[in-house]
Amino acid sequence: MGFFIADAMAQSTDAAGSPNGGIMQIVMLVGLFLFMYFIIIRPQRKRQKEHQSLVDALSKGDEVVMTSGMLGKIIEVDEGYVTLNVAQNVDLKFQKVAVHAVLPKGTIKSI
Question: Where are the bilayer-spanning segments (predicted)?
Fold first, then answer.
């Protein structure tokens, strides 16, 4: 047992004895955080803001695609829900956040 402890102590004194060992670790951690921020966090926040502005701009008469792939025309907009006309005499109510995209006018008729 004493043999392993002595090795561990020898390794820790060697690593701590290097002049730039601690600074390099901090620089690497900061670099990793910046990499994660610019590659993952920032683009995700941008998409969230774009989706929120899309949801806030929904109005009666817009033709939309839901996340499920269903197409419909908005006939009513509530605080948290939209009512879609998906077929003749078929109205469905969805949460606003389920709207994936707004289509150009007349898209549903052309399909």
Answer: 22-41
Residues 17-37: tens digit of each pLDDT: 566 778 999 999 999 999 999
Q: With 0-12 CB in 10 A as exposed, 13-18 as middle and 19+ as buried, what is 108?
A: middle
Give the pTM: 0.70
Q: Distance between CA 38 and CA 53 in Å, rounded?
A: 22
SS3 for 62? coil
Tokens of 74: 């908005």
Q: How far apart are CA 11 and CA 21, in angstroms?
A: 13
Residue 22: predicted pLDDT: 85
Q: Which residues are CB-contacts of 91 (< 8 A; sequence separation ≥ 6)?
A: 75, 83, 84, 85
10 Å Cβ neighbour count for 31? 10
Q: In what order do the strands lie in the sheet with 71-77?
A: 90-95, 81-87, 71-77, 63-66, 99-103
